[in-house]
Amino acid sequence: MPHTLLLATDLGHRSDRALDRAAALARAWRARLLVVHALKAPGSPEDAPSWRRIGDPVALARRRIHRDLGVTDDLALEVIVERGDPGSVIAALAARHQVDLILSGVARDETLGRLLLGSTVEALLKQLPAPLLVVKRRPHGDYRHLVVASDFTPGSKLAGDTALAWWPNAQVDLFHAFALPFEGLLQDKRPTIERARQRAAEECQRFAAESTGGRYATTYCEHGEPAALLGDLVEARDVDLVIVGTEGRKGLAGMVLGSVAQRVLDRVPVDVLVVPRAGS
Question: Other CB atoms closer than 10 Å to residue 22's CB: what's the count?
């Protein structure tokens, strides 16, 4: 289980969801929780309203975090407020404190309901010093139903191992989406799709058996665009958390879902855990 968690917060109105999830996980795992807020470089005092010119901004941020958490004795909490670029501050602190998991919320909702991840999350995804949990929904108990998105790489195996180790009492399913090469040139796609589906399903079963010893509860293997399929699956099956891995390269291009990783993070309406491989 993780021993040290780091919550990256901008103290915005949406950050309370990630704050509540971080506190719940820290209590469940008996882990230390670092709550980190990065302050922007100070501007001219004359640029701020009179009530913002009073007091130490670091102390104000600490007070806000303690107020929102409602800290109790069962939570090992440390609040860190530093000046600097949020992505750089968080990555440096994660390395310095040997953090096992970073948590962050989303920036805001657009009018049509899309969740904006925000520049801090996107900056962290380019270096991933530790697994990153992007919290989108308000927590109601522990995660109970998880889906691991896989392309059968070692990064996928690590993502599954992490899910099973951290949430041993949850239902963990395996998801794989396949596409057809030159699909647009096919006149009758149905026979080709069915043959590809059978091959992919066999590979899913083999991967599940070899990687976790058959510990996945259900295997989903479907033809289509991964982000759209995952978005539909989590709603239809009441999934709490989607887990993806990275495969050895830096940034989003190295994620298990390749170029569609950003769309998965953007479009899947539940929390998403990104697990990097060593050296990612």
Answer: 30
Helix axis angle, 154-166 to 189-212, nearest 10°: 60
pLDDT tens digit sequence for 63-100:
877 777 766 678 888 989 888 888 888 889 999 999 99
Which pLDDT score is estimated for 33?
Answer: 95
Q: Which residues have C-beta within 8 Å of that of residue 219, sequence separation ≥ 6?
A: 173, 174, 176, 201, 204, 205, 208
Q: Which residues pair with 198 in a beta bridge?
A: none
Sheet holding 219-223, edge to edge: 76-83, 32-39, 4-8, 101-105, 132-135, 271-275, 241-245, 145-149, 171-178, 219-223
The DSSP string of 77-106 is EEEEEEES-HHHHHHHHHHHTT-SEEEEE-
Under the banding of pLDDT at 50, 70 and 90, the label for residue 211 is confident
Q: Give the sign of the dihedral formed by CA 205, CA 206, CA 209, CA 211.
A: negative
- Please tell me the distance from the alpha carbon of residue 272 to that of residue 261, in angstroms, as a whole number: 11
Tokens of 223: 């033809």
Given a cut of 50, is residue 114 above it in pLDDT?
Answer: no
Mean pLDDT of the chain: 81
Task: State the DSSP code for 19.
Answer: H
Of 249, 232, 229, 243, whose CA–CA distance to 274 is shortest? 243
8 Å CB contact between 239 and 103: no
